[in-house]
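Interim report, section 4.2 (structural modelling).
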Amino acid sequence: MEKRDAQSQRPSRSRSARYSLSALLFCGECGRRLQAKVMRPARTLQWFCFWAKTIHPEVSVQVSDRLATRHVRAVINDLVRGREAAMNAAAEREFYRAASVATDQDVRGSLEREFDRFSRKLSRLYDMRTDDEIGEDDYREKRAEYIAEQTRIKAELDSLRPPAPIEVPDFEALTDLDSVWDQLPTQVLRDAIGALFPRIVVSRRTESSSNASASDRIECVGAWDVARLEEVSQLA
Ligand SMILES: [Zn+2]
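Predicted structure of the assembly:
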C-alpha cells in the first residue's frame, strides 16, 4: 500500500522526454512547470518560468540545464554518501513508530471490547423491556446512558490515527543511477530522476547566489518526503 502511495506522487511518464529534466522542474514563485528554451548563439539550454511575465513580473525564474543537472546529480551523490547515517536514523525512527503503533493497537483492542460490552448491555436492556422487567422511563434513561458511552468510545477510537510510515530513499536505485548516468538514454534517465525527485523546485536568483551555489535555489524534493512534496505541489 505504501508503494502505491509513493507511486501516485510521481509525475506521469513522459514518453518523449527530450531532456533529462523534462517536466521535472517547477517554479518556486508560482509552482508552474518550467519550460525549456535553447539560447542562441551558444545553443545552451535554459529552463524558464514562462508565466513570470503575467504572474510574477518582478521576479524571473530561470536556470541553465547544465547547472540544474549537475546539482541533481550532486544531490544524488550526497544521498548515497550519507546512506549509512540515513538508514540508521530511519531504523531508529521506525522503531519508535512501530512501538507507538503497537501501543495504539492495545488501546484500540480494549476500546473495541468496551464498545461491544455496551452493545451487549443494550441488547439485554431491550430484552428486559420486552419482558416488562423494567419500566419505560428506566429503559429510556439506561438506553441513553449506554449510547452516550458508545459515542464517547467511538470518538476515542477515531482519534487513534497511526503515524505515517517512515519513508527513506531507495538507495539501491540511487547508487545504480549514478554509476550508469552517462550511458542512459535521455528518456530512461529522465524517468529515473523523476521517480526519485517528482518535483525539483527552482527559486529566484538572489543577489548573493551565483551559479556556483545552486543548492540555495534548486530544491530536489524526494519521493519519500511526502509532506514536503504535498507542500510544493500546492503552490500551483
Ligand atoms: Zn513562475
